[in-house]
Here is the input.
Amino acid sequence: MKRIRWQEFLMILFGSFVLAAAFYHIHVQNNLAEGGFIGIALLVQALFHISPSITTLLLDIPLILLGSKILGRQLAFKTIIGATSFSVFYSLMERYSPFQINLSQHLFFAALLGGVLVGFGLGLILRYGGATGGDDILSILISKVSRLSVGKVYFIFDVLVLILSLVYLSWDQVAYTGFSVTVCAYITDWVMTYHRRKKTESAYI
Here is the structure.
């Protein structure tokens, strides 16, 4: 049991690293937005020049604390790991990363690559029992008090954030971001269910 807990911890950290790397090197460097709290953080950065590593934590912490009372301490603890490690990794890359991935003339490819990498990182975090931040908990809480599924809440929240992103991005950039979010959702589901499918397939061999 102890080994499994360490595995969960390490995989959540790895997922957060992939997530931070994809957002900074693909989305931010190529002027793509994002849904959820990270999308809000990118909007705040564009308007007020505050690093997303700070904004995401300020948005996440109150909802994580609220979620711990309603959804359980274990989910809250793993969410804190995911949110804090994402913030740390993003801050380090923002300050020290020498890599520049300029795909501004190929936004379709940037959106596709960003969606795949972000979906992979998110999928790992969710697959090992964590969450990416307070927006995940907010979606779960809204779903519990409404007739909407968690997926529908995610979608509505993302659409609202993307509309707000028009303040600093063009329609084309927001449209490509929408494509990236769609790819991300597919890859996230694939990563989360891959292990389950492999176990089912092995049972028939």
User: Anything to note?
Assistant: Confidence is low (pLDDT under 50) at residues 199-205. The chain is about 80% helix and 0% strand. Residues 171-203 form the longest helix (33 residues). Helices lie at 2-28, 36-48, 52-70, 73-96, 107-127, 134-145, 150-164, 171-203.
